[in-house]
What does this fold into?
Amino acid sequence: MSTLRMTSDLRRQLILGAARRCFARNGFAGTTTKSVAAAAAISEGLLFKHFPSKAALYAEILAEECEADPELAHLLGQEPSTGTLVELMRGMVRHFMQISEVPDDEEAQRLRLMTTSHLDDGEFARLLYAKVADLIGTVFVASLDRAVESGDASRIGSEPLNLFWFAHHTVLMAALSRLPAIPCLAYGNASDVERQLCEFLLRGIGLNETAIASHLDREWSPGQGQPVTAESA
It folds into this structure.
């Protein structure tokens, strides 16, 4: 049984490796499950036993990239707290807003794919949302609970994970409005927009003004480091 399990896991990794090469070379639209199977030297039927669709393959690759991100690993390794919550929101804002500043970047193409999925069958978006929830949802909810317990936040509603999605969708839409070569909406100075958006989201998930000012002022440095995400995501 152990040998069979290892063989299955190895086959899965070989398929993912082949898929990465195909997506890197041809993009999402130009890659087919048939081409991935050929690159992995397996039948398309065997590929489908591991991944039911091209969207499932791509979502898995993005999730693995997120898990390998040292910034995200640092965040996930921290104790749940108000500070962790603020860092998560700040990282998400920076990630999405930086994507909109480089519209030809690979991340921008992924953002377009995510948006298109909502208007199509939704498969890719569903898969990616599920993986983001698995990766970040527990940290968000636990940190929000600690913020409430410490008096830094008020409880809003009975589904705390919804607050993460509301924040995520807000930032996603803000990034989309700036994605075209001529932005659909001009928010103004990029640094000011990021700060304002962070404050808006933190208020929306229940943090009070004292906690926002304390943690955001302590950590705010718009040009420092790389953003944290998943959807990435």
